[in-house]
Each structure stands twice: as structure tokens, then as C-alpha cells.
Design goal:
Butyryl-CoA Dehydrogenase, subunit A, domain 2, 3 domains, 15% strand, four-stranded mixed β-sheet, globular, four-stranded antiparallel β-sheet, binds flavin-adenine dinucleotide, Acyl-CoA_Oxase/DH_mid-dom_sf, 401 residues, Butyryl-CoA Dehydrogenase, subunit A, domain 3, 12 helices, Butyryl-Coa Dehydrogenase, subunit A, domain 1
């Protein structure tokens, strides 16, 4: 088993780490660097994105012919962790959700004409995108089989009616991927479409207020009342919606984990800094065994997360959907992020509860991790299903050639 990473990946990691340390972390302390929703202000983002592009640290996850560096998923795991040492990091490098997942899926499945129209402007950083799948009750959430938004074929067009919610980035996005029902077939009933913000026949009902800081463009409820989409803007083929979802969501879930590992490490970093200097009852916090156990436990759980993520990334790189590997990584790292923020706040005392450090930001953000891209329970259900199907082979070694 070889846990080394290629020198090229290590070089990217080191350059990202230096960039984040020099340009991004200092902004976290400047209230003027935030927009009204707790994210990096657009003017600062534009400035840093230009810098990242100039330094060749842009869209590293995409192929060179798409405008990236051709990192594989294992390489991405190394680099994304370094990006998200800062709460502002990933979006600066165009490696934040939902653009990240949308770009990767389009790179994989879109036609050349679709790539030119829908993908390239996102890669250039000119527009943002959104992925619209989840619906309010009684529509599809954890179970995509319940999706009710309909796209009815009329000649060379589809006409869409229905409702979606929690669509990240919708208020700022120009390019949308939409999942809609084109038939009642259990496997082939869903189809993925591309549409532009300026098309008539849909609108944003509301930007849903949430407990955490928000991605640019918020999390929106949107309604479709006759949006017309030409057949040429179907992604893959009619009936391939579920397949596209699998192709998109596996890697997208894993990239969340890659980034959350960076945030988890940051929590430990802030906790260790305080524990190293803070005295109480004549003893430094870092010298107390109770604090050492907390930090040792987090260090171990972070490393477990990295191993799960690296294995899932390796499996994806070998062409597998890596369903069980991604599910295990997603459940573990989502809960780890929550625990890391909580523990770091505890070690920092009242300071941890203030906005003087990014810990409270991470704590509020972390709660969504156990819901988005599949709730914990759904991933565990999938894991049990795999266990039922594979039995002891669930843990089989890949013996190779
Ligand atoms: C911040 C944020 C951003 C999001 N961004 C997007 C986006 O950009 N695009 C998009 O399409 N969606 C987005 N979502 C939606 C997200 O993907 C869904 O919330 C998620 O898939 C769960 O669906 P649901 O909320 O309908 O929960 P439900 O399906 O209503 O489930 C509710 C709860 O029931 C339990 N449950 C469900 N199924 C099972 C089961 N099989 N076994 C045991 N328990 C179960 C779980 O605890 C679950 O949390 C976002 C959500 C949030 C919070």
C-alpha cells in the first residue's frame, strides 16, 4: 500500500497553503471583507480569484483542455483540504460547491456544444451555477424517486412545471442544472436539463433564511410555471437523470469531505494555539490531560477521515462509483466537522463563542454537513444495503493484478 503523493500534487498543496496563509486568512479578521450573509464580499472575491488565476491555482480539478490542471481525485483531496484551512478558501480557487460539482459533471457528460455554452463561462469565472433537485413535501428530497417537477415534451422543447427548494446559489447563478420527471418509469423517469437564468417561465419564490453563513446566492425556493427548454439542452439523454445524479453526487459529496477536513484541522489549530498559552489554576491548558485527550481524539478522527476520503478518491479514480466508500467518508467527516468545531469552542472558552475566531462560523456551518448531499441515516441505509448484498465481501481487499 503506497500512501505517498506525487511531487506535482505536493507542489500544488504547498502553493495553495502559502496562498491561503498570505492572502485569505488575514481577510477573516476584517469585517469589511464579509458580504451580508457571512461569506467573502464580492469585491474581495474578485480580487483573490484574479490572483489565484494569475498564480495558476485555478480550477485544478478540471482537465487541462477544460482549463484546469488535471488533478485526479486523490490529488484533489490533498489540495482541497489545504484550500479550506480558511472559511473563504475554496471559492477563491473555483473549487467550491455547487460550481465545483456542476463543472465536473459537465466536463464528464456534456456534448462539446453544451460545454462551450454552459461549462466554459463557469470555468472562466464569468458566471455561477446551481443544481436544482430537492423539492418541498410531497416532492423528492432524500428519495429522488419522489421528484414531482415535470418536464413535458412538446415538439423540440420541454415545458417545465413544479417547485424546488434549498437550491444553493440560485440568486446569483446564471446556469442551472435541473432534475425533472419526464416519465413515471422507476429507473428512467428523470431527466437532467440545462437552463439560463434569463429564460422566462420560472422565478425565485424566496431566499430561505438559514442558521449558518450562506454560499453566494443563498439557498432558494424556486417555482417553474412553463419554463421552456430546448431538447438540445438535455444533459445526457432523456431518462438518464438518475444516472447523471450518481455521476455528479459521488464526487461532489467527496469534495465536501475534502474541504471539511481542512475546516476540521483549522478548528484544532485554533484550539491548540489557545491551549498553548492559556493558564488556569496554575496549569497551562495544553498540559491538562483532559485537554490532551480531546485534541488527541480529534487528531485521530481527522486522520480516519483522511484515510476514508483518500480510499474513496482512489476508487473514483479507478472508475468506480465508490458508493460505499463515499457514504462512509461523508458520514464520518460530517460528524467530525461538527465535533471539531464544538470541541475547539469548548477549549477556547468564551472566546470560542465570540466572532473573534472563525469557530462560531464553522460551528453554524457544520450543522448542514449531516444533511446536505444525503442525510447520515440515508448513507447508513445505503451502507446496510451494500452489506446485505455483499456480506463479508463488504470488507474484501482489492487483490489487484
Ligand atoms: C444548506 C443546504 C444546501 C442545499 N443545497 C442543495 C442544492 O444546491 N440543490 C439541491 O437539490 N438540494 C440542496 N439541498 C437539499 C439537501 O440535499 C436535502 O436537504 C437532503 O437531500 C435531504 O432531503 P430533505 O431535506 O428533503 O429531507 P427528507 O427526505 O425530508 O428527510 C428528513 C430526515 O429524515 C430522515 N430520513 C430520510 N430518509 C431516511 C431513511 N431512509 N432512513 C432513516 N432516516 C431517514 C433523515 O434524518 C433526514 O434528515 C441543500 C440543503 C441544505 C440544508
Amino acid at each position: 500500500m503506497d500512501f505517498t503523493i506525487p511531487p506535482r500534487v505536493e507542489a500544488y498543496r504547498a502553493r495553495i497553503a502559502a496562498f491561503v496563509e498570505r492572502h485569505v486568512i488575514p481577510l477573516e479578521r476584517d469585517p469589511a471583507a464579509y458580504d451580508g450573509h457571512g461569506n467573502i464580499a464580492p469585491s474581495e472575491l474578485e480580487r483573490l480569484r484574479a490572483l489565484a488565476k494569475a498564480e495558476g491555482l485555478w480550477c485544478l480539478q478540471l482537465k487541462p483542455e477544460t482549463g484546469g490542471a488535471g488533478l485526479d481525485k486523490v490529488g484533489m483531496a490533498v489540495c482541497y483540504e489545504a484550500m479550506n484551512r480558511s472559511i473563504f478558501g475554496p471559492v477563491v480557487f473555483n473549487s467550491a460547491a455547487p460550481d465545483d460539482g456542476n463543472m465536473m459533471v459537465m466536463e464528464k457528460v456534456a456534448t462539446p456544444a453544451q460545454k462551450a455554452r454552459w461549462l466554459d463561462p463557469i470555468v472562466r469565472g464569468e458566471v455561477r451555477s446551481a443544481f436544482a433537485m430537492t423539492e418541498p413535501h410531497p416532492g423528492g428530497g432524500s428519495d429522488p424517486g419522489m421528484i414531482q417537477t415535470r418536464a413535458e415534451r412538446r415538439g423540440d422543447r420541454y415545458v417545465v412545471t413544479g417547485r424546488k427548494w434549498y437550491i444553493t446559489g440560485a440568486e446569483d447563478a446564471a446556469h442551472f442544472i435541473l432534475m425533472a420527471r419526464t416519465s413515471d418509469d422507476a429507473r428512467k423517469g428523470l431527466t437532467a436539463f440545462l437552463f439560463h437564468r434569463d429564460s422566462p417561465g420560472w422565478h425565485i419564490v424566496r431566499r430561505i433564511p438559514i442558521m449558518g453563513p450562506e454560499e453566494h446566492g443563498g439557498h432558494c425556493e424556486i417555482a417553474f410555471e412553463g419554463l421552456e427548454i430546448p431538447a438540445s439542452d438535455v444533459l445526457m439523454n432523456e431518462g438518464d437523470g438518475l444516472k447523471l445524479t450518481q455521476i455528479r453526487l459521488g464526487p461532489a459529496r467527496l469534495t465536501h469531505c475534502m474541504r471539511w477536513l481542512g475546516l476540521s484541522k483549522r478548528c484544532v489549530e485554533i484550539a491548540r494555539e489557545y491551549a498553548a498559552v492559556r493558564q488556569g489554576f496554575g496549569v497551562r491548558l495544553a498540559d491538562r490531560e483532559s485537554i490532551q485527550l480531546m485534541l488527541g481524539d480529534l487528531a485521530m478522527r481527522i486522520e480516519i477521515g483522511r484515510l476514508l476520503v483518500a480510499k474513496a478518491a482512489w476508487a473514483l479514480d479507478r472508475g468506480s462509483f465508490a458508493r460505499k466508500e463515499v457514504s462512509m467518508a461523508k458520514v464520518h467527516v460530517a460528524n467530525l466537522l461538527h465535533a471539531a468545531a464544538d470541541t475547539a469552542i469548548q477549549i477556547n472558552g468564551a472566546r470560542g463563542y465570540s466572532t473573534d475566531t472563525p469557530l462560531e462560523w464553522i460551528y453554524r456551518y457544520a450543522r448542514q454537513a449531516r444533511l446536505v448531499d444525503g442525510a447520515d441515516e440515508v448513507h447508513k441505509m445505503v451502507l446496510n444495503r451494500t452489506l446485505e448484498a455483499e456480506g463479508d465481501a463488504f470488507w474484501s481487499w482489492d487483490a489487484g493484478e
